[in-house]
Specification:
- The structure is a single chain.
- With about 375 residues, the chain is α/β, with parallel strands linked by helices.
- Helices cover about 35% and strands about 20% of the residues.
- It contains eleven helices and 14 strands.
- The chain has an eight-stranded parallel beta sheet with strand order 7-14-13-12-11-10-9-8. A four-stranded antiparallel beta sheet has the order 2-3-1-4. Strands 5-6 form a two-stranded antiparallel ribbon.
- Strand 2 and strand 3 form a beta hairpin.
- Helix 3 runs parallel beside helix 4.
- It is globular and about 65 Å long.
- The two termini are about 45 Å apart.
- Bound molecules: phosphoenolpyruvate (PEP) and manganese (II) ion (MN).
- Phosphoenolpyruvate (PEP) binds next to loops.
- Phosphoenolpyruvate binds next to loops.
Length: about 375
């Protein structure tokens, strides 16, 4: 059960004290208070853990200071969609909106290598009107002798360059709690020129201690990759760990499943699950076509498999795209074979726009059908 308090109520308000006294009289319930302190108002939600079946929703809604009460099912209590659940979907970070209705593109380097490549990438993004990117500084690798990323040493100059080229959000994988401190420190040192979305990689999907640490902070939103060898349900439960610790700014990413049944692609593309995640949760959904496909193969019409997968994700309603680019893929230290070239960026963006437009049209068509089913025969507009 979730109690949503009226705006402006905080832990020093008498209404809060009264509610805590009431909950204190229920021995099988443990309240967990979550406060979101915004510039204009504080929003407070109280999660009730334990046997909530015996609680009267209307009785709690009658207490002073309570806005409303949502009875949640056991599954995905915070990230899930529940009956009569009018909690808002999505969030804003550093001026960029993330929700289930819009689309953000994060084209960038899989791994930061040279300053020159980072600068070339960022310049291309600026020239193409992009506000977000991906840049890996910490790279978990299969082979212990492979390049593991430049780590903390590259952060100050990467952040400064991002600021110089107007990038608002960088998706950056973290694998250890020290990485959060290093990112926070480098942003402070450079005067917060950009923002960072912390990425949980597929190898850490069920690293519950890392999830708790990342979930306990609310400075940075989280891009959460599904596990490559576990069920969708297990991955969604893992994402719930982040939310249960207090961080609700989560984007859920599909990136393909590890199985030879997807050969010759690097992973089996799972983007048909975009609508499933949107239906089960209130999270924006990202697709990562680069790690799903893993190559620059193309079809006889000349369209790259990576672009096909991108379009498949978008036409199914994806809200974010994570895509590897590189100015010189042949010299890239990580994942060169799947990277798109900088000169392909405008084509990629146009292909994205085509697929997005198709999705918008499909959405209107579905609305039209639903309203015809509820309200009688459809009034189809000419040309549709
Ligand atoms: C990545 O996006 O750089 C990455 C390593 O992805 P994944 O964790 O999905 O393999
Ligand atoms: Mn990679």
């Amino acid at each position: 059960m979730i109690i949503i308090m009226q705006s402006g109520i905080d832990q020093s308000s008498p209404e809060f004290g009264q509610l805590m006294d009431y909950l204190g009289s229920k021995p099988t319930i443990r309240p967990r208070v979550h406060e979101e302190v915004g510039t204009l108002q504080t929003l407070m939600e109280i999660y009730l853990i334990g046997n909530t079946a015996a609680l009267e929703k209307s009785e709690i809604e009658g207490l002073p200071g309570v806005e409303r009460v949502v009875r949640v099912s056991e599954e995905y209590r915070i990230i899930g969609r529940h009956k009569d659940d009018s909690r808002p979907i999505g969030f804003e970070y550093n001026g960029v909106r993330f929700d289930q209705h819009n689309l953000n593109i994060f084209a960038g380097l899989c791994a930061v290598d040279t300053r020159e490549h980072v600068e070339q990438m960022l310049r291309a993004l600026k020239e193409n009107g992009q506000l977000c990117t991906r840049m890996g500084a910490y790279k978990p690798r299969t082979n212990p002798y492979a390049f593991q990323g430049h780590g903390a040493s590259c952060l100050p100059w990467v952040f400064e360059l991002a600021g110089k080229f107007g990038v608002k959000v960088i998706a950056m994988e973290v694998a250890h709690d020290s990485h959060l401190d290093e990112i926070r420190g480098a942003l402070e040192q450079t005067g917060q020129p950009t923002g960072v979305m912390l990425q949980i990689g597929t190898r850490n999907t069920q690293n519950f201690e890392l999830l708790k640490i990342v979930g306990r902070q609310t400075d940075f939103p989280v891009l959460f990759k599904r596990g490559f060898g576990i069920t969708l349900e297990e991955s969604l439960n893992a994402a719930e760990y982040l939310a249960s610790e207090g961080n609700h700014k989560i984007v859920f990413a599909l990136r393909g499943m590890k199985t030879n049944l997807g050969d010759p692609h690097r992973n089996f593309v799972d983007f048909a699950q975009v609508p499933v995640v949107k239906r089960l949760t209130r999270l924006p959904v990202c697709v990562d076509p680069s790690h799903a496909i893993g190559s620059r193969e193309r079809d006889p019409d000349g369209i790259l498999d990576v672009m096909h997968a991108t379009a498949q994700g978008i036409i199914a309603g994806a809200n974010m795209i994570l895509a590897d680019f590189h100015p010189e893929p042949q010299t890239a230290l990580v994942d060169g074979p799947q990277a798109l070239l900088l000169e392909e960026l405008p084509y990629f963006l146009e292909d994205v726009a085509i697929a997005r437009e198709a999705y918008e049209r499909r959405k209107s068509l579905a609305h039209e059908l639903r309203s015809s089913q509820q309200l009688g025969p459809p009034h189809r507009s000419a040309g549709v």
